[in-house]
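We were asked to recover a plausible sequence for a given structure. The inputs and outputs are reproduced exactly as logged, with field labels preserved.

PROBLEM: sequence recovery
POSITIONS: 361
GIVEN STRUCTURE:
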């Protein structure tokens, strides 16, 4: 009888710790990007091509061990160890590259696709859902209880996405071109026709001089980051490679005069990068100021080198002689190889047939 009572008590205690569904929790997401996010644009807009971190508001529970020892505070619990994340967008799904959890800062991270043409604000609205991946122990008024995996928390999300837009007025003539200090994430909108000199911070790009018409637009930002594909494909231990890349590859309605800083040496080379390869360019080189000058209607990607670049695949072989263990010979195509192949095939068929007969016996 005592054993029965003891068993009954054990079952009651076990049932008290049985996994249960969580009560409804009031949880939200702070849609003001955290300080570790990329910069926002005008009026707090999210900028295409950038990554934004968001904190989950109060409401998630602290997480405990079964014995009541706290192991994770609620504000640190947004971790892929405990939760998965997904998003269901009502508007603007095409703007989003990914939604994930950052375990280091316990944020939900929304990464936007690059886009160089969005000038009007576009809505990004929907629901971001956290889903509990495993059973966890939490503390409520009754003590330590276990919550079943699969519990979901829906977090409403609403922001706007667009590039910054800056109006620019052109100069009356080439010598009075309006200087424009180019910055990233910005569409330049021409409000009056004229000449412009696009420049800014950088070591290599000197200027882009062009006449533009009213209502023309350009995403003129460039960077001087190494192009990994070119670094890998065109190498020279002694080469000094520098780059200028117009990230949006913008097309103009007329030719622009582009000046890129080389060096005070006519041994420098300038190449255009197209489809992961380089091509020779027509340009003028001024030794007095070390500038390459050329014209383009589409601003692309360029590499400056103090050595002539040679593709890895085009490098001459060190030894054209066959390897010592290479005994392969090639005969004229007389058809003899075909005959031998047929003979081998017929022999194989004969062996199979013989095997089948022996099996029957």
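RECOVERED SEQUENCE:
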């Amino acid at each position: 009888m005592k054993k029965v009572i003891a068993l009954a008590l054990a079952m009651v205690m076990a049932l008290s710790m049985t996994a249960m569904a969580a009560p409804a929790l009031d949880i939200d997401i702070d849609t003001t990007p955290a300080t570790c996010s990329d910069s926002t644009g005008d009026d707090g807009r999210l900028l295409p091509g950038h990554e934004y971190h968001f904190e989950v508001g109060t409401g998630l529970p602290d997480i405990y061990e079964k014995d009541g020892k706290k192991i994770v505070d609620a504000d640190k619990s947004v971790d892929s160890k405990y939760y998965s994340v997904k998003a269901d967008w009502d508007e603007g799904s095409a703007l989003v590259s990914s939604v994930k959890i950052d375990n280091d800062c316990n944020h939900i991270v929304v990464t936007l696709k690059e886009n160089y043409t969005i000038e009007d604000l576009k809505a990004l609205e929907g629901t971001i859902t956290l889903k509990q991946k495993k059973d966890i122990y939490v503390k409520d008024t009754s003590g330590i209880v276990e919550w079943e995996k699969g519990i979901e928390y829906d977090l409403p999300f609403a922001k706007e996405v667009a590039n910054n837009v800056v109006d620019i007025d052109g100069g009356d003539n080439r010598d009075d071109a309006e200087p424009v200090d180019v910055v990233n994430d910005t569409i330049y909108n021409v409000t009056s026709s004229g000449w412009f000199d696009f420049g800014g911070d950088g070591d290599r790009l000197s200027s882009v001089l062009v006449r533009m018409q009213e209502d023309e637009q350009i995403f003129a930002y460039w960077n001087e980051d190494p192009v990994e594909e070119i670094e890998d494909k065109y190498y020279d231990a002694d080469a000094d490679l520098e780059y200028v890349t117009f990230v949006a590859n913008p097309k103009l309605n007329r030719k622009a005069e582009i000046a890129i800083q080389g060096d005070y040496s006519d041994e420098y080379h300038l190449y255009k990068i197209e489809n992961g390869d380089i091509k020779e360019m027509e340009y003028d080189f001024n030794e007095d100021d070390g500038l390459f000058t050329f014209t383009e209607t589409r601003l692309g990607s360029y590499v400056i080198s103090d050595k002539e670049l040679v593709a890895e695949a085009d490098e001459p072989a060190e030894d054209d002689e066959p390897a010592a263990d290479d005994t392969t010979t090639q005969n004229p195509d007389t058809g003899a190889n075909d005959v031998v192949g047929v003979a081998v095939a017929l022999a194989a068929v004969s062996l199979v047939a013989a095997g089948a007969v022996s099996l029957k016996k």
